[in-house]
Amino acid sequence: METFRGIRIRHILLDNNNWWNFYDKYANLIRDSIIINVCKLLACGTTVLGFHQYTCQTCGNSKKVFHTCKSRFCSSCGKKATEEWIAKNISILPQTPWQNITFTLPQELREFFWIKRHLMNHIAKKPAKTITALAKKKKLIPGIFMAIHTFGRYLKQNVHFHLSTTSGGLSLDHSIWIREFFINHQTLKNIWKQQVIQTIRSLYKSGNLKLHPALSQINTYASFNSWLNMLYQKKWVVHLQKKCSDHRKNVKYLGRYLKRPPMADTRIVKYNGTSVSYVFLYSTEIILRN
Question: Does 222 share its domain with 145?
Answer without folding.
Answer: yes
